[in-house]
Design brief:
- Helix content is about 55%, strand content about 10%.
- It is an alpha/beta fold.
- The chain has one domain: 3-Layer(aba) Sandwich (Rossmann fold).
- α3 crosses α4 and α4 runs parallel beside α5.
- The chain is globular, with a radius of gyration of 16 Å.
- The model has no long low-confidence stretch (mean pLDDT about 95).
- The structure holds adenosine-5'-triphosphate (ATP), (3R,4S,5R)-3,4,5-trihydroxycyclohex-1-ENE-1-carboxylic acid and magnesium ion.
- Adenosine-5'-triphosphate binds next to α1, α6 and α9.
Length: about 180
């Protein structure tokens, strides 16, 4: 897969990236509604295809299997679809092939949230994120910091601290509209 892309800018998929729980799924749904586009959540799509939850896939088939399925699905979506709003799982963008496909074929929007604000969200998300289970807060912070380097490879960044989902979605939508009228 080369980096050449013949998809016109206006038709490229919008790909939301960022750490677990920053709001990719929540915001992606809202942006899709606002722009009248289809929404695809990669985690939900994998769950649907396997008829299993993400924690069950991790437990029964292992993380390596999940990462392969995730990578193949994202590359397929990036290269073969247009005009979608796609929310990735939090760890997908750590894979280089995924980054390349998203950056060359889509418009990548990084949803950023500070550690201080993210910490507050942990209790509401820990139960269905296998990578957060059985980890201390310090270990999670380390993962949060480690992943920053990968997420720094994006087209746009939206700082989400203190913003409700509607406001974040409006900001994402404005970025896309401004880009389309450039
Ligand atoms: N801007 C926001 N303000 C407050 N709460 C939010 C915001 N965005 C999302 N949330 C809440 O945070 C939790 C995680 O959101 P969501 O599932 O959308 O994250 P995600 O980035 O898709 O996570 P994952 O990487 O695990 O798929 C949900 O309970 C959601 O309601
Ligand atoms: O950040 C991660 O590695 C993950 C995030 C979730 O979206 C799921 O894809 C899964 O729980 C792994
Ligand atoms: Mg999600």
């Amino acid at each position: 897969m080369g980096t050449y892309c013949n998809i016109p800018l206006r038709e490229r998929n919008i790909v939301l990236i960022g750490f677990m729980g920053v709001g990719k799924t929540t915001i992606g749904q809202l942006v899709a509604k606002k722009l009248y586009r289809d929404f695809i959540d990669v985690d939900q799509e994998i769950e649907k295809r396997h008829q299993m939850s993400i924690p069950a896939i991790f437990e029964q088939m292992g993380e390596d299997y999940f990462r392969k399925v995730e990578r193949e699905l994202i590359i397929d979506l990036c290269t073969n679809t247009r005009l979608k709003i796609i929310s990735l799982g939090g760890g997908a963008y750590l894979q280089e092939e995924v980054r390349k496909a998203c950056l060359s074929h889509g418009i990548v929007v990084f949803l950023d949230l500070s550690w201080e604000n993210w910490k507050e969200r942990l209790p509401s998300i820990v139960h269905d994120r296998p990578l957060l289970k059985n980890k201390t807060l310090e270990e999670i912070k380390e993962l949060f910091e480690q992943r920053k380097q990968a997420y720094s490879q994006h087209h746009y960044r939206v700082a989400t601290d203190g913003l409700d989902p509607e406001t974040v979605a409006t900001r994402v939508m404005k970025l896309i509209r401004e880009r389309d009228t450039e």
